[in-house]
Amino acid sequence: MKIAYAYVQCCLRCRTCGYYYTPEEMHFEACPSLWKHYFAAYSGGGKLTLLRLIHEGVLEWNQEVADIVYRCNLCGNCRENCYSLAFRTPSFNHVRLMELMRAELVQRGFVLPEHKVLINSIKNYDNPWQGPRSGKDRWAKGLSIKDLNREKAEVMYYVGCTASYDVTIKRTGVATVQILKKAGVDFGILGPREICCGSIAARIGDRDLFQQLVKRNIDIFNSSGVSTIVTACAGCYKTISEDYPEFGKVKPEVLHITQYLDRLIQEKKVRFREVEKTEVTYHDPCHLGRHAKVFEEPRNVLKAIPGINLVEMPRSRMASWCCGAGGGVRSGFSQWSSETAGKRVKEAETTGVQYLVSACPFCFQNLDNAIRGTNSRLKMMDVVELVEQAVV
Amino acid sequence: MDRPSWTRSEKLLSAFMYGLNINLSRPTRPYDKEGAYRDLLSALGPEKVSNSLPVRAVYCRNISTTTAEPIGIPDMVVTPETQEEVQTIVKVANIYKAPVTVQGSGTGFPLTICYMGGILIDTIRMRKILEINTVADYAVIEPGVTYAEFNAALREQGYSFPCGCFPPSTSVVANCFGTHGIDRTILYPFNALSAQIVLGNGELLMLGSDTTPDWTQGSPCGPDFLHLFKRSVGTLGIVTRCAVRIFRELETKKCLIYGFSSFADQVDFNLEAMRNWLCQNVFCALWTWPVHQFHRQRMTNKLPEDTNRRYPTIKPPEGTPYNFSFNTIEGFKEDVANRERILDRLAIRHNGYRISEEEIEKKWPWINQYVKLHFVEDYPIFLEPYVTSQGSNYPVYCIVQGAEVAKAAEKYIVETAHQFEKEHPQWTFNPGYFVLPLDNGRRWFINLLSWPEDYTEDPQEWQNMRSETIMTVMSKMLPDLVEKFNSQVGGLPLMMELIAAASIFSPDTHKLWKEMKKLLDPNDILCPYVMLGIIDKPEEVL
Q: Contact at 8 Å (CB) between A264 and A215?
């Protein structure tokens, strides 16, 4: 925290963190938290200022501070737009500092009750959704997938907790399996032995639990004998590829399904049939886009499907507006989370497309709810679902 | 014009204030905080009013006080959306005699801080562009509209509005009035055509061309009181709507980059270019800046190989000029071409040379990507020649009388800085300069130094470097500057107030202002004790 304080002093309080801005591409209202609450404390810089004020003794760690710190999607817009160059360091940027603050809050017992439920579930069931361990592979029943606990395969499909337990999301898991099979990929799943990647624990700030999960997962991954781990969850991908290396090396290559599909398409291992002419717009998940800088691959995959026309939203790629689910916001502040998703759905509607497409189960859930909540004419789809419909 | 004279002790105290973290404390004003909060809450709703300590404590600093101790925490923060809501707030404040301070984006200096607590109005919700009139070349906006938002809207219609502040993305346009949220320089008050202002008694006043039925350019018949309110820095009224002059984008815009082998040569070149109106904007970058690791990291997303290599400022690496000068020129093609030729000639006369786009791109690509993008292209046209330089985040400022004295002072600063580097080779000392002609060019405003705090990733080393630099400067350079050059020196918070006070007031103006203040703001709720207090009782402030 002492080190963090030195960096926090570099915040100029200019509020650029609330906007997305380059002279060529200007988009405003880029921070969901600031543009919901309008007080400076809710901006990225504002939250860092809280840390500084705590260090200076003006404030103390308490529930009021926790309420502000947790009202953040950790979407990373602040980090990307900050004028203060000090925050460009890999180890000390807005997102890392906010995660540090959350860790401090958890240690001091200032956790939101909704987050406690998630943490307890991970501790008890190895997943945040209170699903029994034995039910982890129920979605795959009848799909005849290799069990990596008993058989060897080249690729591990790391399903993730949401696709395993959520009834609306499990179809992305099924679609992923169908695509991999049609492409002739030698793959398998861990089934009940697959445990949470720890993303939720890390975002909430339970560092101890996160470290335990990381260590267990690294052991499982490295002993599985696979050369590649593929996941269709943006949160899992970001966590395993970006956060794990701090604690240990994951030997297999880690790829998001869109990256893997892009590769398969280039190697001509995946072919598509012409589909009915459809216009789609792509929502960049924060974990995949701004955090992991995977912008082109999902678009390449969509563009490769004959008949699909990709129309970009005004705020896309680095300027993408968060779906509102990330950073523990959907569980902690569900109404605000839905409002944020509603804004994104409205933006998607302006493109005049039929389908809103994403590559993250969290984005899928939240945007799908917003579509239904706002009676939008849009239909929510995951990239893999579109691919599965067209793949031959 | 009579000016307040500054005693030696005041000058020295101002100099040491920065290093010793002496705060500008004002007497507090007791009032019924609970009552005021209750009334505001019932009038505006909980979404727009907060008295939560973490929410309001964040407003205790603005961009001028990044390194100082927290100065003033408001008792409550309000984010009104309409003119009527601002009037309601002021009326409530009058009932309870609560001080009111207005902040735009919070990037202003330094009078937008609640020195006495009270109510802080954040204009973040007042961001509507109400009209862009391309026939009469004006636009009507609310006070929270930022330069970036405004220029994005104007650009669609082939127009722009000059920006004279940092950062251009988030600073609010209304700061060109200086009637609330004073900007660090208030470069363009003359672009403000008319305004609607909520007075301290809650009444709405229409000024300038707004007194006519339509917003039009130019003054109405009879006296135009608009100028009385400009630069009143929040003490006379709150701008809630304003009309500003907008400018058609010019035919050609070019950025010429020159390199100079010495600091003095570059200063001479810039001065000559400015005095002859050869370019609209000059941005100076000391050679240490382009090699700055974080600028490269920002663009490449990875640390360069030579991250930990130190670059003493005494001598640039082979092939790098001592200073870069970025000169932006705009106008008709022929005019730009002519001025380009003259600037080239001028550079040669001052031992400099023009650096081609290709050379920049090849040798210092981050300059093109970062400096040009953010500090040159980014700034829309400047109507007056304007020079700025890098690294003004943690500066100590120096004001001297007259260009000749300024030049001598600059020379002294550079020489002392180099001496310091020889004595402390482990740390880099970065003397930049930020020359702004104050008061019709007779006064010069110099950025004494900025220490490159992000040269190191080790926070402890950073802290050591900072305190060592401060103490060295405080103990040696500043007293010297005070004595030898009769200058006023200090950190930003006090410095800006000294500038404002010294350059605006004569005793008669001061007297008139006090009477106006009494008339328009009988309960003295708008920014009490900010400017008038300094002049009245400097000993209490200092």
A: no
Query: What are the tokens at A82?
Result: 């900050």
Chain A residues whose C-beta sits inside 8 Å of any chain B C-beta: 2-3, 5-7, 9-16, 18-19, 21-23, 26, 28, 37-41, 46, 49-50, 53, 56, 58-59, 64-65, 68, 83-86, 88-89, 91
CA distances to B325, B387, B437, B442 from B406, rounded to whole Å, are 19, 15, 10, 10
**What total number of domains does chain B contain?**
3
CATH number, domain of B50, equals 3.30.43.10
Which position has the token pair 């014009």? B1
Output the six-digit token pair for B41: 């809450």
Residue-level pLDDT at B313: 46
Of B63, B73, B152, the CB nearest to A13: B63
Over residues B459-485, the mean pLDDT reads 66
The CATH number linked to B469 is 3.30.70.3450
In chain A, where the domains are located: 2-107, 113-264, 272-390
Strands B129-133 and B159-160: unpaired
B156 close to B139: Cβ distance less than 8 angstroms: no
Domain final position from B206, B225, B248: B248
CATH of the domain at B217: 3.30.465.10
- Do A113-264 and A272-390 have matching folds? yes
pLDDT at B429: 52
Whether A85 and B462 lie within 8 Å, measured CB to CB: no
Segments forming the whole domain that contains residue B415 = 252-495
Q: What is the mean pLDDT of residues A223-233?
A: 95
- Per-residue pLDDT band for A179 (boundaries 50, 70, 90) equals very high
A20 Cβ contact partners less than 8 Å away, ≥ 6 residues apart: A26, A27, A28, A30, A77, A80, A81, A315, A318, A319
Which of the listed residues B221, B248, B275 is the one where a domain comes to its end? B248
Q: For residue range A142-152, what is the model confidence (pLDDT) as tens digits?
A: 899 999 999 99
CB contact under 8 A, B294 and A86: yes
In DSSP terms, which residues pair with B197 in a beta bridge? B205, B239
Q: Which range, of A66-70, B137-141, B306-310, B498-502, averages the lowest pLDDT?
A: B306-310
Name the percent of chain A lying above pLDDT 70.
94
CATH architecture, domain defined by A272-390: 3-Layer(aba) Sandwich (3.40)
ipTM of the complex model? 0.91
Residue B541: band (very low, low, confident or very high) from pLDDT cuts 50, 70, 90:
very low
Which class does domain A113-264 fall in?
alpha beta
- Beta-carbon count within 10 A of B225 CB: 14
Q: Is B503 part of a structural domain of the chain?
A: no
How many CB atoms within 10 Å of residue B212? 14
Identify whether residues B288 and B230 lie together within a single domain: no
Q: Which of helix, strand or coil describes residue B44?
A: helix
